[in-house]
Amino acid sequence: MTPNIRNTFKEQEMFGQALYEMEQLGISQAIRNHFYDGELMMSVYLNDVLDAVTQKPDDSLLQMVKDWEDKTGNLVYHLQKVETNLGTMVTCLFVSKHEEDWEYSVEKFEKDGVQHFNVMTYVFNLSEPEFSEYGSVGLVTSKMGGVKRIY
Q: Of 20, 33, 98, 139, whose CB is crowded by the most CB atoms within 10 A?
């Protein structure tokens, strides 16, 4: 998935950008350490009490992400899963292979005293794969150290 040894200077830059974006989003050091060690983690929204627990994605989802990374040249650094009325959505937080996209990938704003983030993502719709797409989503840092999707 995301090996901690990078083959090219570009991959090293993307890896560094991913760690920077994770820090900007308030993702916990423990989750960042997993990524640094080559392990992708996923925040899963359960309810307002547990907020969003972090777990390892299953092998089929990891393969789906790897195939997408290979196809696009982008680097996924964290996943966020939520059940919606449109089906099961897995949001991929990623670093674009195009460096000019980096300055716009995470935008911060405050609402009602809470730090919010508008993040460039790719969303897998596991229920209706033909509706998987790029887009911006709203996130907040979860109480459990990951992220929670708010729109």
A: 139
